[in-house]
Amino acid sequence: MEEKNNITEELAERIRGAEKVLVGLGAEWGTLDRTEAARAYKALGRLLDGKDYFIVTVSVDGEILQSGLDGKRITAPCGNLHWFQCREACTKDIWEEGEVPDGKCPHCGADLIPNTVDAEHYIEEGYLISWREYTSWLARTLNRRLEVLELGAGMSMRELQVVRWPFEKTVFFNNKAHMYRISKEFPQISDEIREKALSVRENSVEFVEKL
Ligand SMILES: [Zn+2]
Fold first, then answer.
1. Residue range(s) defining the domain that contains residue 206
2. How far is the CA of 81 from the centre of ligand 1 (A)?
3. Residue 93 Cα to ligand 1 middle (Å)
4. How many domains does the chain have?
């Protein structure tokens, strides 16, 4: 118990001292119902209050955009279940929920389907603007005191590609970076960044809510 308190105190201290905070949200954040999500993102918002942060998430439920977190500091490259695209990808247009009452593409008449990576022809325009914001923000973290919070990322291909691998690379190349990898199942840290990273084997949502 005492050890756990030390971890949370040190984490809060590191966030206070960081110039930039990069947050990655994995599958542990994608299985929450509305109420749970609201509570979890509120806790995350308290932790990041006043910081220069950016959040990259693999979730597609869009709940994070309903939270108090700054939408300009969030990117969700796997898409959003509440946005719609043409199944045939005849256009790069994206529609919001209810915007097209009959659910058919106004251009070709094909079904509109959720704009996520699960679409056969995923229209990436839905997230690309925020993704560009993210990559330019990330470029500005070089040689800055960067704290990286990787929360609940497992080993699925999308979690590896969007969160785990790029985060490891970022921490490796930034001499002032430090990372927490918090995950109930996969908190292991590779040798390359062992000196700069701490592993916490715990559900990351519960961990953040306790801070
Ligand atoms: Zn169409």
1. 8-77+124-210
2. 18
3. 9
4. 2
